[in-house]
Design a protein that fits this description.
Low-confidence stretches: none
Structural class: alpha/beta
CATH topology of the largest domain: Aldehyde Dehydrogenase, Chain A, domain 1
Helix content: 25-40%
Number of helices: 14
Radius of gyration: 23 Å
Number of strands: 21
Shape: globular
Mean pLDDT: 97
CATH class of the largest domain: Alpha Beta
Distance between the termini: 70 Å
Number of domains: 2
Largest sheet: 7 strands, mixed
Strand order of the largest sheet: 15-16-17-14-13-18-19
Length: 477
């Protein structure tokens, strides 16, 4: 069985020196594609040394030159977007159209950071005494350890790499073992663009071994993680023990509020698109649909009809609108959510659409009148299962929406500016989208509050995460 040379350290690709390797599975068939090489302690030690040397080179490289190299990397990702998209779909399962959007958008993220890095301005602070010059410089924080997930293997990783490099940092990226090829090809784009040796390093392996080895090292000065709340808590605690700055983008359980003055048909169509995109395996995906009583039946009918039309199948089939889940565990989890909701008193609003017996498929599923006691109303499903609940007053919807410890994203639909303003102000989430889907553009911050983490990727906030202010007070002699 082919074993990928997936470890990239000091500008060289190797298969890694760990005794273990990872199986890469096609989720549409359940069949093994190949193995991904794992990094052992020797590889991680080499990566730390490489990142340390790379940082000394890269931080002294002018912002203009860094921008030039990043823009070349952006051009290369666009030129290779179709190849990268095929890799994403083969290993992760999402429809090829979605994979093309993800691969094609990587260049936009790199371009944004390439330009924003040229504008990481400091400032002059007026002093209290004549002859004193007070300035603040923005300096790169240092080598970064970054951990990215399998659900968006390219778009999650590119934010971390591009943000770190634009600020002048080096990076050791730990990619997802389930979806390695597209991550590798993304890193090759930076390599081929002329990023100096040691500035970008990529490893795969046993997650806890890598995280603990890297975060404990004195070389690493910044940690960026995207993934589950439990793992985020652990890595955040480990980073705090070693006084490392941290950005955590964790799970969500987004409310989707539909008011009685909304365009119900449009809201239902957006509801379906957002819920079943990437088979619901999206941290910012809506999961709790809170609908005002006057339009509840109309929305439920439209939402269910849209879900019933979703074509489920292999992501490589151009007709497919929703692909498989990542693995068999996710299918079992969806079945448990549905069974628990039905036992709790919910009703099934979608027909039992047949899905392939091969691979890891689950039909788009909508549950109506889901009680608060159901697990689906408390735990993030991270799959194609939606809960629809009715409410009477806006305050009731806000109470339900804000009742959980999550606070990543929230959506609301209304025809009233007054209501839109109220919802924008009162929804407890790091990102709020009113009457459309407006999240995750390169120029906008992406991040949550409460158990959904802290810090942002994207926008000027994403660059600031990799910068450290230095205050200088100077008197002429």
């Amino acid at each position: 069985m082919e074993k990928l040379k997936s470890i990239f350290v000091n500008n060289e690709w190797t298969a890694g020196r760990h005794r273990l390797a990872g199986d890469v599975i096609d989720p549409a068939t359940g069949k093994k594609l190949y193995e991904v090489g794992f990094a052992g302690p020797e590889d991680l030690a080499a990566a730390l040394e490489s990142a340390s040397r790379g940082f000394e080179i890269w931080r002294k490289t002018s912002a203009y030159e860094r921008s030039r190299i990043l823009r070349k990397a952006a051009d290369l990702t666009r030129a290779r977007a179709e190849e990268i998209a095929q890799m994403i779909t083969r290993e992760q399962g999402k429809p090829i159209a979605e994979a093309r959007m993800e691969a094609g958008g990587a260049g936009d993220h790199i371009d944004w950071y390439a330009e924003e890095g040229r504008r990481a301005y400091g400032r002059v602070i007026p002093s209290r005494a004549i002859g004193v010059r007070q300035t603040v410089l923005q300096e790169p924080i240092g080598p970064v350890a970054a951990f990215s997930p399998w659900n968006f293997p390219v778009s999650q990783l590119v934010r971390k790499i591009a943000g770190a490099l634009a600020a002048g940092c080096s990076i050791i990226a730990k990619g997802p073992e389930e979806t390695p090829s597209s991550c590798m090809e993304l890193v090759r784009c930076f390599q081929d663009a002329g990023v100096p040796a040691g500035v970008v390093n990529l490893v795969f392996g046993v997650p806890h071994e890598i995280s603990e080895y890297l975060i404990r090292s004195d070389v690493i000065r910044k940690v960026s993680f995207t993934g589950s709340v439990p793992v985020g808590r652990h890595l955040g605690a480990l980073a705090s023990q070693h006084l490392k700055r941290c950005t955590l983008e964790l799970g969500g359980h987004a409310p989707f509020i539909v008011c009685d003055d909304a365009d119900v048909g449009a809201a239902a169509q957006i509801a379906s698109t957002l819920k079943f995109r990437n088979a619901g395996q999206v941290c910012a995906a809506p999961t709790r649909y809170l609908v005002q009583s006057a339009v509840y039946d109309k929305f439920l009918d439209s939402f269910s009809a849209a879900a019933g039309k979703v074509v489920v199948g292999s992501g490589l089939d151009s007709a497919t609108q929703m692909g498989p889940l990542a693995n068999a565990r996710r299918v079992s989890a969806m079945q448990d959510f549905v069974a628990d909701a039905l036992r709790s008193g919910a009703t099934l609003a979608t027909k039992n659409t047949p899905v392939s017996e091969h691979g890891f498929f689950h039909a788009p599923t909508i549950l109506a009148d889901v009680p608060a006691s159901a697990k689906l109303m408390r735990d993030e499903p991270f799959g194609p299962v939606a809960a629809v609940v009715r409410f009477e007053e806006i305050e009731d919807a806000l109470a339900i929406a804000n009742s959980l410890p999550f606070g990543l994203a929230a959506f609301a639909f209304t025809g009233s500016i007054k209501r839109a303003t109220l919802l924008s102000d009162e929804l407890a989430a790091g990102m709020v989208s009113i009457n459309h889907f407006g999240l995750a553009a390169p120029e906008t911050p992406f991040g949550g509050i409460k158990d959904s983490g802290y810090g942002s990727e994207g926008g000027s906030e994403g660059l600031s995460a990799y910068l450290s202010p230095k205050f200088i007070s100077q008197v002429g002699i």
